[in-house]
Amino acid sequence: MAAPGPTDPASGSAQGAVRAERRILLELWERHGGSLLLAFFSLLLPLWLFAELADEVADREGFAFDEPLLLWAQGLASEGLDRFFVVVTDLGYLHGVVPLDILLVLSLFAMRRLREATFAAVALGGSALLNMGTKLVFARERPSLWESITPELTYSFPSGHAMGSATLACVLFLLAWHTRWRWAAAVLLPPAVVLVGFSRIYLGVHYPSDILAGWAAASAWVGVSYFVLFRFHARPWQTGFDQ
Question: Which sequence ranges are marked TM in the entry (predicted)?
Answer without folding.
Answer: 32-51, 91-110, 117-138, 158-177, 184-205, 211-229
